[in-house]
Amino acid sequence: MLIDWIGIIFIMIPLVTPIGEALGFNKLWFAMMIVVNLQMSFMSPPFAYSIFYLRGISKPEWGIETNHIIRGVIPFIFLIMVGLVLCIIFPDIILGLPKLLGMKGIK
After folding, report:
1. How far apart (Å, rounded) are the C-alpha atoms in residues 84 and 4?
2. What are the tens digits of pLDDT across the range 13-50?
3. Nearest residue to 43 (alpha-carbon basis) of 89, 16, 83
4. How many angstroms separate the CA atoms of 23 and 17, rounded?
5. For residues 57 and 105, what is the distance between their CA atoms, to the nearest angstrom?
6. Helices 27-43/49-57 angle, 10° precision
7. Rounded Cα–Cα distance for residues 41 and 3 (Å)
8. Rg (CA), the chain
9. What pLDDT is attached to residue 2?
10. How far is CA 102 from CA 19, 40, 91, in A?
């Protein structure tokens, strides 16, 4: 959440993926958890790329300031956190469809 997405992809993923495999996490589940965390990093300061994009496209006559956008994003960050917790508690949310389709390597 506190590092930009390029840093996460090039630095953190190669570091944490072997740890996840050593702990016995499903590769698909682990990758999806990283992807959802990346989405949260796009919406949360200090990098908050989506906030800066929205600020950049808002017209001055609309009177939208950065703090308005940050306050508007906070509920969505909490929803993403709830989704992450649900996917941790119930991994079949992520793995259910691949299991149903009979994909190899999905336990």
Report:
1. 19
2. 899 999 999 999 999 999 999 999 888 888 887 778 88
3. 83
4. 10
5. 44
6. 40
7. 8
8. 17
9. 62
10. 26, 30, 16
